[in-house]
Design a protein that fits this description.
Elements: E1 10-16, E2 29-35, E3 43-53, H1 56-62, E4 76-77, E5 82-88, E6 99-102, E7 110-114, E8 118-120, H2 136-146, E9 154-157, H3 165-174, E10 179-184, H4 187-196, E11 201-204, H5 210-217, E12 222-227, H6 231-240, E13 241-249, H7 253-256, H8 267-273, E14 276-279, H9 288-302, E15 309-313, H10 318-326, E16 333-337
Parallel strand pairs: 9-10, 9-12, 10-11, 12-13, 13-14, 15-16
Antiparallel strand pairs: 1-2, 1-4, 3-5, 3-7, 3-16, 5-6, 6-8
């Protein structure tokens, strides 16, 4: 049983109370005090230590129905990936003190979770638990499996300063890419990409036509595109793609930010150039996760990969963290620590 001194009678949760039509912000949420849940059969009580906010949450909060997961419910705790410590294992088969991750933990300080919904984390797999909340598996999927980056390639990564892109550029370099180009929204983030994250050049959204900037940055064309945005950036990348280029479609951030993610595609140019477009969703490639964890742990420890992330403190900061993620304020993953 848990120590009554360590588990309070109540805790805080963040509920979605108004469904926004545009980008979500603080007025769409409420911080609610509720009784700490009591674990039922097959459940464990988990104290949340860190949660991740993701751009896809914008779609789920707004209730867009074309995604493979249901929209977030109103007047209920916002779901989402988290890491925490088991404080009451019940009959779940877990042990008090286990560090676990879950996609169902959500924006709350304590959660009663089914044993089948959590994964016990190996403390030796990664240097620190929060690294398990990286979006690196999606980056690895785009670079290694869908994009098939090879030695000597010129690679373009859209939304390069995001949770996926900040790792994708580094992975492309590890795979032997000669030149890695990223897109981002500000000179400040462009400087971080080239100075700290291994990018050779950056194209800036809003600083002129993306296609022109890409042709200047990659005069011989692109061998691989790892696209997290869609829309005009994907159209520009296809125009600059070399013969035989591989285009990995990993995300559609433009649509999540209220713009159009639809790209103009010329089938004749794709056929003539032998260009491959491959959409890849992580839920269809779960076998890539253990492979990624092995690579991530090794490269973090030897210093050849870094994990950029921004941390806000306190459950009440989760709505702010999401808003700042969506407006592009931060570089890398955005986490809330409790």
């Amino acid at each position: 049983m848990p120590d009554s001194l360590t588990v309070p009678p109540t805790h805080r949760e963040v509920h979605l109370v108004v469904r926004p039509t545009g980008l979500p912000s603080g007025e769409h949420f409420a911080v609610v005090e509720a009784p700490v849940p009591v674990p039922g059969p097959g459940q464990a009580l988990v104290r949340t230590s860190v949660l991740a906010v993701l751009t896809i949450m914008s779609d789920l909060i707004r209730g867009r129905g074309e995604l493979p997961v249901p929209p977030f419910a109103l007047d209920a705790c916002v779901p989402g990936p988290s890491i925490g410590e088991v404080v009451d294992a019940g009959d779940s088969g877990l042990r008090a003190g286990d560090i676990v991750s879950s996609q169902a933990g959500g924006w709350r300080e304590y959660a009663a979770l089914n044993a089948s919904a959590v994964q016990r984390l190996d403390p030796d797999a990664l240097p620190y638990p929060a690294a398990h909340l990286s979006q690196g598996a999606a980056a690895y999927l785009g670079v290694v499996r869908a994009g098939e980056v090879r030695r000597g390639d010129t690679v373009f990564v859209t939304s390069a300063a995001g949770g996926v892109g900040s790792l994708a550029g580094q992975l492309a370099k590890l795979r032997g890419a000669t030149r890695v180009i990223g897109s981002t929204s500000s000179p400040r983030k462009a400087d971080i990409l080239t100075r700290e994250l291994g990018y050779d050049a950056v194209v800036l959204r809003g600083a002129g036509p993306i296609e022109e900037q890409l042709r200047h940055a990659a005069p011989e064309g692109l061998d691989v595109v790892v696209d997290n945005v869609g829309g005009g950036q994907l159209t520009a990348a296809l125009a600059v793609a070399r013969r035989g280029a591989r285009v990995a479609l990993i995300g559609a951030l433009a649509g999540q930010l209220g713009a159009s993610a639809i790209a103009e595609i010329d089938p004749h140019a794709l056929i003539a150039g032998g260009i491959t477009l491959r959409g890849a969703a992580l839920h269809d490639h779960l076998d890539v996760i253990p492979e990624w964890i092995d690579v991530f742990g090794r490269e973090l420890r030897n210093g050849t990969l870094t994990f950029p992330r921004t941390v806000l403190s306190g459950i009440d900061q989760a709505p702010r963290a999401l808003r700042e993620l969506l407006v592009g304020r931060h570089v890398g993953a955005v986490h809330v620590e409790l």
